[in-house]
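Final report, section 2: Outcomes. Of the targets proposed, Lipid/polyisoprenoid-binding YceI-like domain-containing protein is the one most frequently requested by collaborating groups, and we therefore present its record in full.
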Amino acid sequence: MPRWSVLIGLLALVTAQAAPPADCSKSMLVHSSFVIYSSKAKFPDPSEVVTLDFFHEFNPAGAVTLCGFSFKPDRKAEVLTITAPRLANFSALFREGRQDTKRLVLENTYTDMSMGGPGSKSNAVLDLNTYTLTYRPPSYSSVPFTVGVKIDGGAIQPLYYDGKASTIKVPRNARTVDIYAKVDPEIITQWDRVSIDLGKAVIRFYREASFPTR
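The predicted structure is given below as tokens.
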């Protein structure tokens, strides 16, 4: 995903309860707690770049619908639920660059608060063509972390452990995929868990979650 820092000076923060209508001819950028999109131009006002930060500035009364996607935050639990018309539609949101490769690229960051500065970025990648789950670790990171996966509530499997990434084959008849991150207490992550309901086309980002023991 592009660096959010490049966009900071361009973002129009939305503090009202209603989100401006989106220009669906342009791509949206979605993260674990916010969405960035271009609003529809309405004479005499031009289109603007809008960010909806669901856990800070923007507090909607209910779910927000943009271009067929529903965004429903639980501010107390810090869980963002995103629903799509079909699972395949998510590849237009969670992607790298401008091209839709039919993969869900789920970015996470690992920030050592004692060091300051931005955290290391990595991606869990679900390929919707092959139903394989892979992991792209940071090119360099001194932060130790582990990533595990549960399929249909089964045993936890290593996706990234001891500096090594694995490939996991997801059965075509699987219903749910849950991805967990395990870090030391002083490490801050964007999410500790991502839950993907494959049949209902729902993705939930959990800011905090316990890593399964089995």
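Residues 111 and 119 are 4 Å apart (CA to CA).
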